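Give me structure tokens for this 133-residue protein.
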Amino acid sequence: MDGELSQDLVLQSLPSSFSQFVVNFHMNKLDVSLPELHNILQTAESNFPPKKSSVLLIGEGSNPKKRKRNSSKKKKVGEKTPVPPKAEDPESKVVCFHCNKVGHWKRNCKVYLAELKKKGSETTASDSGTKEK
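Here you go.
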């Protein structure tokens, strides 16, 4: 490779912090060898302002609500979840359509079931009587 091509490759590979140096190098039309270019770059780099090193520290926040919420999500071994309170029994407000009493439906009404049983036994007796004739 000839000297000018190698200089261009080196200058293009430099980070963006050397952009001003590259512009000055091309404006002045410097013709140097690669070792000389290396020395010039080292000198230019030493003239850059010192880098500010930023440190990121991640720690636990001071919001107690978040800590409580996170700790409550973790279930301890053998710990049972609390049972929610039971809602009112829906049958406690129901009125029977047969006897008009509160607390049960017609299908569970003792009076209605007894009448059905009585009618059922009467119809089976009358049916058995008609078959014999």
